[in-house]
Write a structure and sequence with these properties.
The protein has about 500 residues and is α+β, with helices and mostly antiparallel strands. The protein has eleven helices and six strands. Helix content is about 65%, strand content about 10%.
Length: about 500
Amino acid sequence: MIRKIALAAVSTMALGACTTVPKPFTATELNSTAERNFTRLDIDQEPVTAPIDLYEAMARALKYNLDYKVEMMEIALRDRELDVQRYDMLPQLVASAGYAGRNNFAGASSLSLITRRQSLEPSTSQERDLFTADLTLSWDVLDFGLSYVRSKQGADEVLIAQERRRKVANRVIEDVRSAYWRAVSAERLLTKLLELESSVTTTLDNSERLAERRLSAPLTALTYQRELLEIQSQIRKLQRELVVAKAQLAALMNLRPGTQFSLVLPDRAQELPEVKYAGEDMMMTALLNRPELREVSYRQRINSRELDVALLSALPSFRGILGVNVDSNDFLFNNDWVNYGARASWNVLNLFRLPAQRKAVEAQDALLEQRELALTMAVMTQVHVARARFGHLSTELQTASRQMQVQDRILNQIRSGHRAGAMSRQTLLREEMNTLVSEVKYDIAYAEAQNAYANLFASMGIDEFSPDVTGREDVSTLRASLEEMWQDREQAVRLSGS
């Protein structure tokens, strides 16, 4: 009977193993997943009901940007893992219960070691059906020490996740500022570019018809057409550069592609804040605040605790036990009892592993130290480059502003001449194109200068958002917090530069 049962169990296991084959998702399952992801992409987002300004764009990015949400979830995961690690420091309290039965009694007899004769007739002290239960409390001092060190390392992992969140948030804010100003330029100029392209296309068609009818000199007509085609090429190039800006901004705010929204168009006369921090002060600020350097410091602290783990592992283990037991066997004199005890054990071979573990920790520490030095040089270089870039872009912005003003005056003169019949349509189109180009160049210069301004603070590790921001606030609250912080920052910059 027992052999049959064992054979049946082995056959069942073998058949189960044979049926384990790769099973790809069906088309229905894949379609269901795609539909679910498409639906959940922007679920619970506040709809856009008014033109978006810079601070609302930054607020929406901090609240809804998916890359930033990933980092927030990473922090939440590390927090939960830390909670789990804290439970490892507690004693173990194990409850167990069991039932056992057999078809006959378990009996035994005794054999005399002297006479080699049976000295006791077969007897039993155990019932055929038994129920047992126990509750055991145990605590290992060595496990507690190891769990304590691991929880400290887990706490540092939470801090590392927070630093990565800061880094992603600062990058997102930088991208939003750059994309916002480019999108503003697109809203200002794309309509003008389309109107100018339509005018150029009409003029080009007229020129080709005049050339076909021999109403103008062939070389003059071809030269004129070449200039018109060059203007048309420039228009389409500018359109290509501007048309994607709004889509990029929408992606940063986690708006679906094709979502219609408008932007607040600030006055072009808005001044860029001046920054006159000393270069050495900026570098020291960066060395104190940059997320990458803080992460390496936390990694060094985690690694230093690996040596504590190695030392603890080389120590003897001491475990105390206290248990309560119940047994349904009526042959027992005491059916319930309390047991207690202690046990010490020591894996002596861990002592021989300790030198190798120490060398591994020292090698990892040397690697982290060298990485810290490399990051220090990289951070200082980034601060220097960011400072120089902001200075150059501020100068380029001033030049672009003057060029736009001069071009506006030239266009006014050309229009007056065209109305008086002193200037040709070709000259007017060329100058209208030059005016649009100067406006686009100014807007692009302004967007790059704004991006450089944000990058200046990011290079120093100064957060682009208030420290009390959690991402759970509504958009209007986040917007107000960001506006207040950036305006206070610009005021502080002006005061420091005065």
